[in-house]
Amino acid sequence: HLPKEVRIVEMGPRDGLQNEKQPVSTEVKVELIKRLIAAGENDIEATAFVSPKWVPQMADHHEMMQALKPLKEAHPEVTFPVLTPNIKGFEGALAGNAEEVAVFAAASEGFSQKNINCSIAESIERFKPVMEAAKENGIKVRGYVSCVLGCPFDGEIAPEQVAKVAKDLYDLGCYEISLGDTIGVGTPAKAKAMIEAVSKVVPVEKLACHFHDTYGQALANLYACLELGVSTIDSSVAGLGGCPYAPGATGNVATEDVVYMLNGLGIKTGIDLDKLVDAGVYISDELGRKPVSRVANAVLAK
Ligand code: HMG
Ligand code: MG
């Protein structure tokens, strides 16, 4: 039942860096993106049009869009989605020629309030003008649902609640729904139950798994979801990251670890593992640490 191919959506430059305390320059972010492209990545979330007061690390979103223009010309096959929580964010993305944006909701009220300062229902209302403007401008919209396997504020989340929010986003016109285990608490049977519930209301080929690896369960959870037909995975080079509004959350599952597992399963990604490891070493050196990825460290030790 496993897919033959998986599309990786790279989170490093956005989810990976948004929580970094030390400033990371636009130049370094762009160099990271160049290296990810060289490794064969085609979907790279590049920045977030969110409030610089809330997330200072993404304050260079306008500069990032300028810097991405020549990269886009050189690599038309690569897409750089950006986060847009409201119409103000969308306008910034549009001014920067974004071709894909993402709105982000949560399956829990507690996280919705902490992350985007409004209820789930209010967030859906805020997304409506974004969806309309995106449609007018021919821009694709991805939809995120956070806390699909647990919430740092509200605890357990019912799969039906995840399905409801996913369906709302899909009905609004999101082309794909990315399901976030924001705090990495899920385990495989729970992940499966969640995908089973969501795929009753959104086709499974429109779902992506966005798992943080806080408890070291992400690969096991991903394998469980691959068996159910999921074929899009969000991951972060070197395992960078964490969410500023999820206390203690660590990075997304490392792209190196996902690619290694998929290679072993004979599932194509189009990504060169060695070049990916190099990209992870580059950004980890800039941050003054080792990659979090187990695979990267194993490859480097050889
Ligand atoms: P708010 O305060 O409720 O909004 O913030 P507001 O409309 O009342 O505006 C307040 C101020 O923010 C105003 O500025 C606005 O201009 C400004 P002031 O008058 O005070 O100077 N503002 C903006 N500035 C830039 N870009 C914008 C924007 N909108 C308003 N788009 C808002 C609402 C959503 C903006 C705020 O709560 C925010 O920026 N939150 C940050 C959310 C965020 O980036 N979270 C991390 C990403 S999500 C994530 O990591 C989860 C994910 O990875 C999946 C998973 O793992 O689960 C996707
Ligand atoms: Mg995330």
- Outline type: globular
* Poorly predicted regions: none
Q: Taking all residues together, what is the mean pLDDT?
A: 97
Category from helices, strands and their pairing: alpha/beta
Helix content: 40-55%
How many DSSP-defined strands? 8
Q: Give me the number of helical elements.
A: 12
Largest β-sheet summary? 8 strands, parallel
The termini sit apart by: 33 Å
Strand order within the widest beta sheet: 1-8-7-6-5-4-3-2
Compute the CA-based radius of gyration: 17 Å
Instruction: Provide the β-strand percentage band.
Output: 5-15%
The kinds of small molecule bound in this structure are: 3-hydroxy-3-methylglutaryl-coenzyme A, magnesium ion
Q: Please trace the helix and strand order, writing H or E for each element.
A: EHHEHEHEHHEHEHEHEHHH
